[in-house]
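[C-ALPHA COORDINATES]
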Amino acid sequence: MNRHIPILMCGILPLVALYQLCGQINWQFILGYGSLISLITFVAYWQDKRRAQKQLWRVPEKSLHIFELLGGWPAAYLAQQVFRHKTSKRSFLIVYWSIVGIYQILALEWITNWRISRWLGSLI
Protein backbone atom coordinates (compact mmCIF):
# COMPACT_ATOMS: atom_id res chain seq x y z
CA MET A 1 0.00 0.00 0.00
CA ASN A 2 1.29 3.44 -0.90
CA ARG A 3 2.20 5.37 2.25
CA HIS A 4 0.92 8.62 0.73
CA ILE A 5 -2.68 7.41 0.37
CA PRO A 6 -3.77 8.62 3.84
CA ILE A 7 -2.78 12.23 3.12
CA LEU A 8 -4.40 12.05 -0.31
CA MET A 9 -7.59 10.82 1.34
CA CYS A 10 -7.39 13.69 3.83
CA GLY A 11 -7.52 16.11 0.92
CA ILE A 12 -10.92 14.95 -0.32
CA LEU A 13 -13.22 16.55 2.28
CA PRO A 14 -11.43 19.92 2.26
CA LEU A 15 -11.50 19.99 -1.56
CA VAL A 16 -15.24 19.29 -1.60
CA ALA A 17 -15.76 22.01 1.01
CA LEU A 18 -13.62 24.43 -1.02
CA TYR A 19 -15.64 23.63 -4.12
CA GLN A 20 -18.82 24.53 -2.25
CA LEU A 21 -17.15 27.64 -0.84
CA CYS A 22 -16.27 28.79 -4.36
CA GLY A 23 -19.97 29.49 -4.83
CA GLN A 24 -19.63 32.15 -2.12
CA ILE A 25 -16.05 33.34 -2.43
CA ASN A 26 -14.12 34.11 -5.59
CA TRP A 27 -12.25 30.96 -6.65
CA GLN A 28 -9.24 33.06 -7.77
CA PHE A 29 -8.89 34.34 -4.20
CA ILE A 30 -9.05 30.80 -2.82
CA LEU A 31 -6.50 29.56 -5.36
CA GLY A 32 -4.21 32.53 -4.71
CA TYR A 33 -4.40 32.16 -0.95
CA GLY A 34 -3.87 28.41 -1.11
CA SER A 35 -0.85 28.83 -3.36
CA LEU A 36 0.66 31.53 -1.18
CA ILE A 37 0.25 29.70 2.14
CA SER A 38 1.55 26.50 0.54
CA LEU A 39 4.65 28.28 -0.76
CA ILE A 40 5.28 29.94 2.60
CA THR A 41 4.88 26.63 4.43
CA PHE A 42 7.13 24.72 2.04
CA VAL A 43 9.86 27.39 2.25
CA ALA A 44 9.62 27.48 6.06
CA TYR A 45 10.23 23.72 6.22
CA TRP A 46 13.11 24.05 3.75
CA GLN A 47 14.65 26.86 5.80
CA ASP A 48 14.29 24.86 9.02
CA LYS A 49 15.92 21.80 7.47
CA ARG A 50 18.75 23.87 6.05
CA ARG A 51 19.31 25.65 9.34
CA ALA A 52 19.28 22.35 11.23
CA GLN A 53 21.98 20.97 8.94
CA LYS A 54 24.12 24.07 9.50
CA GLN A 55 23.39 24.12 13.25
CA LEU A 56 21.90 27.62 13.02
CA TRP A 57 18.91 29.22 14.72
CA ARG A 58 15.86 27.16 13.75
CA VAL A 59 12.38 28.06 12.57
CA PRO A 60 10.21 27.60 15.68
CA GLU A 61 7.92 24.57 15.54
CA LYS A 62 5.10 26.87 16.59
CA SER A 63 5.60 28.84 13.35
CA LEU A 64 5.50 25.67 11.26
CA HIS A 65 2.27 24.66 12.97
CA ILE A 66 0.74 28.10 12.42
CA PHE A 67 1.46 27.81 8.69
CA GLU A 68 -0.15 24.36 8.70
CA LEU A 69 -3.17 25.69 10.57
CA LEU A 70 -3.55 28.56 8.12
CA GLY A 71 -4.00 26.02 5.33
CA GLY A 72 -0.49 24.89 4.53
CA TRP A 73 -0.88 21.37 5.92
CA PRO A 74 -0.74 19.67 2.49
CA ALA A 75 2.46 21.57 1.63
CA ALA A 76 3.84 20.68 5.05
CA TYR A 77 3.33 17.00 4.31
CA LEU A 78 5.04 17.39 0.95
CA ALA A 79 7.95 19.25 2.56
CA GLN A 80 8.27 16.60 5.26
CA GLN A 81 8.62 13.94 2.57
CA VAL A 82 10.87 15.91 0.19
CA PHE A 83 13.29 17.13 2.87
CA ARG A 84 12.93 14.10 5.19
CA HIS A 85 12.28 16.62 7.93
CA LYS A 86 10.08 16.36 11.01
CA THR A 87 9.02 12.84 10.01
CA SER A 88 10.06 11.04 13.17
CA LYS A 89 9.52 13.58 15.96
CA ARG A 90 6.41 12.17 17.60
CA SER A 91 5.34 15.32 19.49
CA PHE A 92 5.54 17.38 16.30
CA LEU A 93 3.60 14.80 14.28
CA ILE A 94 0.84 14.62 16.89
CA VAL A 95 0.21 18.34 16.48
CA TYR A 96 0.51 18.12 12.68
CA TRP A 97 -2.01 15.26 12.37
CA SER A 98 -4.31 17.01 14.83
CA ILE A 99 -4.35 20.02 12.51
CA VAL A 100 -5.14 17.73 9.57
CA GLY A 101 -7.95 16.23 11.65
CA ILE A 102 -9.34 19.68 12.43
CA TYR A 103 -9.49 20.38 8.71
CA GLN A 104 -11.38 17.11 8.18
CA ILE A 105 -13.93 17.94 10.84
CA LEU A 106 -14.43 21.53 9.65
CA ALA A 107 -14.78 20.41 6.04
CA LEU A 108 -17.32 17.75 6.98
CA GLU A 109 -19.25 20.29 9.03
CA TRP A 110 -19.24 22.77 6.14
CA ILE A 111 -20.39 20.12 3.66
CA THR A 112 -23.22 18.99 5.96
CA ASN A 113 -24.26 22.57 6.75
CA TRP A 114 -23.09 22.23 10.37
CA ARG A 115 -25.62 19.45 11.10
CA ILE A 116 -23.25 17.54 13.40
CA SER A 117 -22.56 20.61 15.53
CA ARG A 118 -26.25 21.44 15.74
CA TRP A 119 -27.04 17.85 16.71
CA LEU A 120 -24.33 17.84 19.39
CA GLY A 121 -25.60 21.21 20.61
CA SER A 122 -29.09 19.79 20.99
CA LEU A 123 -27.74 17.08 23.30
CA ILE A 124 -26.36 19.64 25.73
Observations:
- Residues 98 and 104 are 10 Å apart (CA to CA).
- The chain has one domain: 33-123.
- The chain has a mean pLDDT of 90.
